Amino acid sequence: MTKEQFILRLKELEISKQDFSELCRVPYSTINNWGVMREGKPLVIPNWVEPFLDYYEKAKKLEYVMTEICQKIESVKK
């Protein structure tokens, strides 16, 4: 995953780098340095980031669906 792909994915998920930092317990400065050139090579974004974001997206969708279902059930009970 490139830095550009990472930034785009965060925007798609409506999560800031700061929020991602807190969620993953990775220092913000570390996240901010991903993709920056050091000694002629970019600092690599770890392999776990892409699957983590995929699971985060799935969890957000599941939470939305569960909330909708629970609201429907509550409205039927009344």
In short:
By secondary structure, the chain is mainly alpha-helical.
Shape: elongated
SSE-based structural type = mainly alpha
How far apart the termini lie comes to: 49 Å
Rg measurement, Å: 17 Å
Number of strands: 2
* Averaged pLDDT: 92
Protein name: XRE family transcriptional regulator
Plain-language structure description:
The chain is mainly alpha-helical and 78 residues long. It has helices at residues 3-12, 17-24, 28-33, 49-77; strands at 37-38, 41-42. The chain has four helices and two strands; from the N terminus they run αααββα. The chain has one domain. The radius of gyration is 17 Å and the shape is elongated. The model has no long low-confidence stretch (mean pLDDT 92). Helices cover 68% and strands 5% of the residues. The protein has a two-stranded antiparallel sheet with strand order 1-2. This is XRE family transcriptional regulator. It comes from Sulfurimonas crateris.
